[in-house]
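I would like you to sit down with the record closing this message with an eye to the fold:
=====
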Amino acid sequence: MTNKLQHIFERLFALKAHETVAFLGGFFTLFLVFCSYFMLRPVRETFGIAGGVDHLSWLFTATFCAMFLVVPVFGFISQKIKKTNLFIYSTLFCSLIMLGFTLSLYYNSGNVWVGRAFFVWVSVYNLFVISLTWSFLAEVFTKEQAQRLFGPLSAGASLGGITGPLISAFMVEKVGYAGLLLISTALFLSTLFLWLFLVHWRNDFGRGKDMKQDKPGMAASEKEKSETYSGIWIGLKLIVQSPYLSQIAVYAIFTSAGTTFLYYAQARLVQATFTNPAEQTQFFSIMDTVVQTSSILIQMFVTARIAKKFGVTFLLVSLPVMMVILFGLLGIFYCFPILAIAMILRRVGEYALARPAREMLFSAVDENSRFSAKNAIDTFVYRGSDAFWGWVDTLMNKVAYPPVIMLLALVLSCIWAISGKKIGKRYDEL
């Protein structure tokens, strides 16, 4: 990198001279991880429909059960391995599984059971890899560096979230699903070179340097503990014991309700509108691109201003209120165009408004709750709720018309809004 270009980076992102290469390493790591994952999302949605919309509840349940089994195993392994090595081993393991799916789809692309297994795999993979990526970067940079750099670094994740679905949309008909998985795996594996570089940089200029300068009285076991990934089971206990965390969990449960009912409606209407699986994948890819682009723009120019002017409560309530209106429209006009608009608005509202607000809620709790309880909510609470509401939708679909289900979702969204108002008020009091 030329001195002039490096100077521009330092001025633009408030970097110190030795941080430029690490910033670029972190930026492209996030770009590659998110690009790889968002290439898989449209494929997962297509496979979910191919496996039968009536069977989606089983896939949601299987995802929850897989999470229930994987979490304790992952927690045990992570307590034995340094976090800086954990991501490298996880990357290799996930890449091997991805290659297995690639070969299966190459030789038998129409196997519905491979598609169902892939749906569950991507749903679990998403939660662990995305969370682990940010956790690793938190281990690379010091607290002071993270406060300055994590904002600009997140642009790499956003750019990856836009690029990934575009690749899927343009390439699915040319290379097929096996080809998309192979490209995604190659992108994911390429992060290993960046990880190795960042670990080396960390020891000289990042958090590793700070740990070398720890006070002499700091026990070795405490250093080792700081290098490992805390278990999620502790988080479940904290949620039960804390009324504040319990309210956050309730908000998550009703967030899942709105998301799940709309997701099932999407699956049914997309299946009826697009009979070609490749066209379905292209639709999901385009929708992901629109959602990611809109979310970035709102996050950059709107979210912070709304939070500052109206407070966190407004952010928490805005999405469920919007869903009340959208579910009302779907109850009257149950058709694909309204559904497509509703899906885009719901996801943009979640990414740009509700999710940032939910992250702010955890700033009011201690560090242990911030990590353990948050991980428990992001895994068990969300995935368990997805499975529960999925079965409610499936059973309702057997005895009621889709517009009636949308009206039930409207009622649940009203409760969701009340929940957001209560937790927002509690946050303001802390």
Remarks:
- Residues 214-230 have pLDDT under 50 and may be disordered.
- The chain is about 85% helix and 0% strand.
